[in-house]
Amino acid sequence: MTRSRIQQGMPTRRDFLIASMALLTTRVAAEQAAAEAKPRPLGEIRDELRKLIPDLMHRYQVPGLSLALIRDRAIAWTEAFGLRDKETNSALTPNTVFEAASLSKPAYSYVVLKLVELGKFSLERPLLEYLGRDLNPDEPRFTQVTARHVLTHTSGIEPQPGGEGRPPKLVFAPGERFEYSPHAFDILQLAVERATGEKITPMMERMLLRPFGMVQSAYGWSEEFAKSGARGYNDKGEHDQTFNEKVWRLSADERARVLKPYPFESVPNAAAGLHATPTDYARFLVEAMRPGKDDFHLAPDMQLQMLTPHVRVDKFDTLSWGLGFGLQRPPFGPWSFWHWGDWGIFQHYAVAYPEEGSGLVVMTNSSGLLACRDVAVAALGYAQPAFEWLTS
Questions:
Q1: Which helix (H) or strand (E) is 127 found in, with range?
Q2: 120-173, pLDDT tens digit by residue?
Q3: How is residue 206 annotated by DSSP?
Q4: pTM assigned to the model
């Protein structure tokens, strides 16, 4: 004799209705609570983080961590913990400059979008038309790659250059899916320079760093960064240098020889050429949340395009990519835009919540990504789904 569905543990239609009503009630209550929730007092958050961060630094072996907290579209708190240089026992300060690594990409993307808005560049025109040359004669699909593909990481361009003068390759058809590609930004940078006749350093200074008050930031290298900037440390706690630092410390002839096998690589580069403090990068996030009608801010329509989901990030339903930024849209709570930086010896995280006008930038001079995650959750009060992808 066949047992009933209830005896077998299978839900009835009534069970489904009850569960659905319960889920709906829970969701409405959660959304209402989120809407009515008041932000925690700044002093309370500050006191909590001052106790938490030293423990996180010890747990994750982070020599130095610096942060900037945004509230009401203004920088509310900056503080630095630990050392910028272990060898000299020099303390990190809020004014210490870091290699920003991939936090460079959103800032560069923002300027590209402004150039599009000004009619000086196109999101849809194939990059080959700007470059005036074929990237790989054996790969006709390169004729389809546009700036939109690069900014959404759907170009199909292999993530890293092959070296030995080898032409870039496509690993899938442009627009087919998401795959994060720093190397695509190398090619976009060359196209932008051909279109505008301007190199990255003066362009970023003129169009973003100076207008947004990022006075301690630059695309490139300086002796001042070498003297007072954060030193990077590997997983063994030993000082190490990024590719950028190694190349900049070479003579011009040596640099040209090292870069010769990488014909599409520029130094400084759009993918990872920014040096900045957390405070300066927080200034960028504040301005990115604030559309405008001037020569520097994106107009509302373009800002909306930047922060609209264009492609899902792998299998993660809560994560997508806009134009230059990652986007987090969890089932409950506000949505946010974010990015991270990772040289291995420098790991950072930046996130902003436009509806609240809040955000956070955390920079570390080691493999401090998990520390960044824990600080963000504690400071902002929201889960950070981005780390499900970053740590997968």
A1: helix 127-131
A2: 999 999 999 999 988 999 999 999 999 999 999 999 999 999 888 889 999 999
A3: I
A4: 0.90
